[in-house]
Design a protein that fits this description.
This protein is an alpha/beta fold. The chain has 13 helices and 17 strands.
């Protein structure tokens, strides 16, 4: 069985449980199928990677055509798909320049390095500290787990990378108390994903922007999970009426293929010179071709408005469940189609029961059910997911 071979050959870093987690063999749109032919409604989406569903046809066609033309050159040479994707990202955002890499962690690494290099050039060699939020998540590299404001990710990897401090999310005074002469930047997720789907308030974001301007700090947004239309706008910062100096993307940008991007303004981009940072595979032509097809879909007139509307309807359906099962469901929160349902307990068991009933959701810890449906999910599929959860809560009532 594949489960036994996986255990034999692959390092045990993922909490897969043989006989519980399905062996998936096919995906199309919002659906996946396991080896036995069972169909699942996928509201995990590869942890927000399949933003337009499995095997999004335009991305598949673009990547396939590029595979037959030019697969890889390295960044020693120019390639059209990379420049075309960069143009779309810049023209659709507050950024002026893009650096391409392969993952969200790499994008955040690039942002950390750029923030330090730029700040040292502009404000002195002591500038290196970055303030991040408690309960945040920024990646699995040594620097990005240090940036992550959750001690459970730090354990066993000490000594950590120096130069990070932590403030309370949605508490601007807490962040201000961490500023000192070494501070160079603030790094925030507009919506904390792995931290439990907590949404930054407009007041908090405005206060942080003002604080950064007052102390000449760079403002960095980690939009790896909440960006690319997930919030109901192309970029989550658009909800707040402010713009970051640097922001990072990954996950759904590639339509299922691995890509990361760091975007920034021209003045900040000047902090990097040739040789300061690089990525062998970054901006690969095949992935950039797929990502351009993703961008084309997201930029279609009216598409993102439908995402916001679907998110509201999903929250409304889940809120009705909360009203029906107040002892079991404590809170429903989120932005766009990035939703968290906080339950009293037994979140893992609810996740397993949903899987048995043909719905894939993700549980963070023991109490947060995370729902990340594709942005082009159908209305009836949202209703189907809510009905499956309703059945589970009904069956679990004493």
């Amino acid at each position: 069985m594949i489960q036994e071979e996986e255990k034999k050959y692959i390092i045990n870093t993922y909490n897969r449980q043989p006989g519980v987690n399905p062996y998936l063999v096919k995906g199309e749109g919002t659906r996946v199928w396991d080896e036995g032919g069972k169909e699942y409604l996928d509201f995990v989406g590869g942890l927000a990677v399949n933003g337009l569903g499995h095997c999004f046809r335009p991305a598949v066609e673009a990547a396939t055509a590029q595979l037959h033309t030019l697969i890889h050159t390295s960044n020693l040479y120019y390639t059209g798909p990379q420049v075309e994707l960069a143009r779309r990202l810049v023209e659709s955002s507050a950024a002026d320049k893009v650096f391409f890499c392969n993952s969200g962690a790499e994008a955040n690494e690039a942002a950390i390095k750029l923030a330090r290099k730029y700040s040292k050039q502009q404000h002195g060699p002591e500038k290196h500290e970055i303030i991040t939020a408690k309960n945040s998540f920024h990646g699995r590299t040594l620097a990005t787990i240090t940036a992550t404001g959750q001690s459970k990710f730090h354990q066993g990897f000490e000594p950590l990378v120096p130069g990070f401090r932590y403030g309370d999310f949605n508490d601007a005074d807490s962040f201000a108390s961490q500023v000192n002469r070494y501070t160079c930047a603030v790094l925030l997720e507009p919506v904390q994903g792995e931290g439990g789907v907590h949404v930054a308030t407009r007041e908090f974001m405005s206060a942080i922007r003002e604080m950064c301007e007052r102390y000449k700090l760079l403002l960095i947004f980690d939009e790896i999970q909440c960006g690319m239309g997930r919030s109901g706008k192309l970029f989550a910062y658009e909800h707040y009426g402010i713009t970051p100096d640097i922001f990072t993307l990954a996950k759904s940008l590639g339509g299922g293929l691995p890509i990361g991007a760091m975007l920034c303004t021209d003045p900040v981009a000047a902090g990097f010179s040739p040789g300061d940072h690089a990525s062998t595979f970054g901006g690969n032509p095949v992935v950039c071709a797929a990502a351009t097809a993703v961008m084309d879909q997201l930029l279609q007139e009216g598409f993102l408005e439908t995402v916001g509307g679907k998110g509201q309807r999903l929250v409304q359906g889940l809120t009705r469940l909360k009203e029906r099962f107040p002892a079991e469901i404590q809170e429903v929160r989120g932005l766009g189609l990035m939703i968290g349902v906080q339950v009293k307990d037994q979140g893992k068991q609810i996740q397993s029961r949903a899987m048995e009933k043909g719905l894939l959701i993700n549980c963070i810890g023991e109490k947060i059910l995370r729902l990340l449906p594709p942005l082009n999910v159908a209305e009836e599929e949202l209703e189907q997911a809510v009905n499956i959860l309703r059945e589970i809560f009904e069956e679990s009532k004493p």
